[in-house]
């Protein structure tokens, strides 16, 4: 019905097969296949498939509401991630930890708004990434003198990564997996919770270290493989300053704990509250160390 220019009463149904979309010569989408239904300024897209940066994407349903100034989108996505795409989404250099040829499967839901110039105004994105086997490169971590068998790699299995991002500069990530440092070990659990709100970042790391032999030669401490041992780290970051709110290494007989260590961007200690250790050394003697900052 086009009388009186009533374009909002147009209804269109159809199918698009194997086309391309190039947005402002910046984003190119290829091999696009979809069904669509347009009615009352509401565009419904179903059975969508396309390729972006050589990665396959699909969607069961996307709804679009076309307003006078804003176009709103809401829907689901199923796709493969590589480290380059994950780096762009999270604004973190994931590529130095995961090889780019490794592909991860993800299921996502999203909402976003754009103006008539195709500029994004608001967005929300939630994704669940699952993997069976994944190698994390830790080339910049030198822990061989503390962790026997550490080869600057973390071998992960049966894990997941859930993340939420939005236009308010907020990010939350939950990561959980089994891990080994080498193939002689039995898989144990590692988990990381991360959140960012503006310039404030929070990390919460937990690792089961029972399969690792640990040496602190400076204080004559050795934890043998098979003995229970756990690590819990809570760290915050604001701008270029880090603060270890709590770091604990512990089992039933030994406990190491530091509180409120403030570090520079080069990880040099600039302030701290306390350091405590209660442990048995390699000769079986009980040692107790306590260092507390004088607040006067």
Mean pLDDT: 89
Give the overall form. Answer: elongated
Strand count, sense and barrel status of the largest sheet are: 17 strands, antiparallel
Poorly predicted runs: none
User: Beta fraction of the residues?
Assistant: over 45%
Describe the structure.
The protein is mainly β. It is built from one helix and 19 strands. It has one helix at residues 83-90, and strands spanning 11-23, 27-39, 42-52, 55-66, 70-81, 104-115, 120-137, 153-166, 170-180, 188-197, 200-208, 214-216, 221-223, 230-238, 241-250, 255-263, 269-271, 274-280, 286-292. It is elongated. The mean pLDDT is 89.
Offer a few descriptive terms.
elongated, 1 helix, 296 residues, 19 strands, two-stranded antiparallel sheet, mainly beta
Could you give a short description of this structure?
The protein has 296 residues and is mainly beta. The protein has one helix spanning 83-90, and strands at residues 11-23, 27-39, 42-52, 55-66, 70-81, 104-115, 120-137, 153-166, 170-180, 188-197, 200-208, 214-216, 221-223, 230-238, 241-250, 255-263, 269-271, 274-280, 286-292.
């Amino acid at each position: 019905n086009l009388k009186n220019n009533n374009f909002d009463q147009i209804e269109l149904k159809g199918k698009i097969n194997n086309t391309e979309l190039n947005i402002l010569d910046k984003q190119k989408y290829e091999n696009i296949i979809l069904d669509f239904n347009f009615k009352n300024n509401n565009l419904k897209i179903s059975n969508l498939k396309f390729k972006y940066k050589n990665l396959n994407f699909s969607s069961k349903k996307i709804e679009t509401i076309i307003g006078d100034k804003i176009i709103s989108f809401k829907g689901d996505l199923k796709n493969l991630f590589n480290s380059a795409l994950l780096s762009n989404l999270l604004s973190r250099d994931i590529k130095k930890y995961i090889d780019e040829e490794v592909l991860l499967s993800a299921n996502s839901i999203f909402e976003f708004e754009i103006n008539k110039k195709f500029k994004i105004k608001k967005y929300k994105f939630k994704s669940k990434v699952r993997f069976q086997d994944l190698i994390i490169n830790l080339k910049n971590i030198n822990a061989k003198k503390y962790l026997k068998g550490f080869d600057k790699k973390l071998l992960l299995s049966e894990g997941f990564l859930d993340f939420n991002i939005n236009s308010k500069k907020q990010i939350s990530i939950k990561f959980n997996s089994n891990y080994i440092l080498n193939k002689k070990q039995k898989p144990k659990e590692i988990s990381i919770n991360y959140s960012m709100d503006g310039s404030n970042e929070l990390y919460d790391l937990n690792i089961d270290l029972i399969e690792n032999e640990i040496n602190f030669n400076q204080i004559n401490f050795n934890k043998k493989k098979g003995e229970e041992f756990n690590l819990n780290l809570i760290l915050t970051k604001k701008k270029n300053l880090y603060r270890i709110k709590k770091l604990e290494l512990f089992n039933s007989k030994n406990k190491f704990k530091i509180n409120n260590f403030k570090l520079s961007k080069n990880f040099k200690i600039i302030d701290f509250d306390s350091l405590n250790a209660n442990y048995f050394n390699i000769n079986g003697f009980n040692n107790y160390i306590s260092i507390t900052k004088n607040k006067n």
